[in-house]
Model the fold of this input.
Amino acid sequence: MYGTIRHEIRINRPAADVWALAGDAAKLHHWFPGITDCTVDGNQRVIITGSGAPMPEEILVCDNTQRRFQYRLLLPIFKHHRGTIDVIDLGDQTCLVVYSTEADPRAMALVIGGGTAGALRELKRQMERQMEDDTPEGTN
Amino acid sequence: MGRKILFITTDQQRYDTLGCNGGTIARTPVIDAVAAQGVRYERAHPQSVVCMPSRSTMVTGQHVSTHGVWMNGVALPEDAPSVAQVLHDAGYRTAIIGKPHFEPFLDPFARFAENGFAGKGTFGPHRGFEHFESATHGAAGPLHYARWLLANHPETVGMFYPVLDGSLEVNAMGGGDTGAPQAWVNNIPREWYHTDWVADRTISWLESLPVDDDWFCWMSFPDPHHPWDPPASEVGRIDWRDVPLPAGYIEDASEREAVLDAKPRHFRAWYDGRLVSNYEAPAAWVPATLTADQIRETTALNAVECELIDEAIGRVLAAVTARGWGDDLDIVFTTDHGELGGDFGLLFKGPYHVEGLMRLPLIWRPAPSSGIAPAVVGKPVGHVDLAPTFCAIAGVPASPWMEGKALPVNDADAAGRGFERVLTEWDSELFGVSVHLRTITRDGYVCTTYLPGSVHDGSEGELYSLIDDPLQRVNRWNDPSLTSLQSDLIADLWDHQPPMKSPLPGVEAPV
Done:
């Protein structure tokens, strides 16, 4: 069986704003702690981890309408991997971001997916800080 | 000049592996002598039976629910309280050398500070330890020992047992003479094995200190935790064929399985290979396949590792004495949790609050200059009491966030200061399997209540008399004659159980 990990966070920003960052394949390292760089070439992305290890990935879905991003790690240890980021509009100028990881072998779901909770926290921190910075003085 | 504190921990060491505790397989003359000069605790229990929560209790002085490291893979926050910081602030020089494991090992994104020092060629500071030099069970990973071995003796790196398999699960591969899981012939020279490395690095750090400094040094051996792969040159010390089976092992399979059946259902389900409840034991290994000879061999290899630790401690104590610190030296020796060791036909560890995992070696040899008399303490104490003990030794007040009390120096002291009970918790959630235990040890009984999870409905429990049934063969949870006692124990448990930290920190890795 696959191992699955799912983390979610509510962000006090419109879904479109959050998607602009979370859905940009080339900006993952801006909000995922432990990823120091990433480069995108077509549907191929290479991330560099904090330990210096390059991890090649295939981008599977980047759907600006559904606000869904999916990718898979192309490492020999994986029989299967899929990472999914969904940004869901909650209709009140906030959104829910769901970051799911499924993997075979199952332990890899925890090894890789364990970092996604921190990534969501950092995404929220950046997006909500940016909103505070953009808010006219005296209105928040 | 004040008292110096040498805090020695091992990993996954059973109470009965020391001569001073009645062990007959490993020869442990150094620790036995320390015990004879100090206070030996016969009822020391951990607050968790796995590494990260237990070690977090040691450094914070808090129960698991309070510090929040509720299972392996949950990181202790970097700003969590630390007794090392308290001592450092009081002027103590501080170090941890060996296995820390306050943060997950499996860390491909290098998010955790603990895993980053060696790669940068640095040694902390971290969590109040001005010197942080790390090791774990083998030659893999980013810690100082692994990098030292790779840099200096790369030919030995592949000699260790591969702790994890190709799927990053705990390896079930058998080895040794009997095919026992995690038994292995390791051809590394003894002096390069992590036990001696930890002692060498401890001696080196101590020798770097001015003689007038006070210090707190946590020397943390990764053994005798599996894999059981001590240096091959030492394996001949103990012929596994001569090793008696542990008292907790029931040779007759039908009798063994009947005992398991009387316990909560996850015991038998794991034994039969129908349930993997936690990451810490090999997922692909079925305990029912464990043979008597495999228990003998793993017990023998474990004992060899205990002997090497004992000898390493002897070298460190000699170095301390040579510096002239002996009269002011406090030694505290314990382990983070036990090992099932063949009891009930089980190995490794998991959500099983039985003696093999719960009864720990704990010895405190107060500084001879303190005038504290040798004693044996039968009252229950816990790891939660260690941090206040270190503060007491150093002459600084225990911090308000510490939840234990300085260890008693004898049973009268224990009675006078209310050492009545010790609590142990287990929580795990792994790929749809959740298990939650709360245990109290008090008045010669150990009582565990199971909270609802994916395996238990919340009605299950265990109740054993440690006096009448030390091998815990008869679960008296449903014994009508003990209903009142059981209710009293459970009420007392909940009266003293701290609430779980909220929000609950997330699991960030398998281990």
User: Anything to note?
Assistant: The first strand of chain A starts at residue 3 and ends at 11. Chain A is about 25% helix and 40% strand.
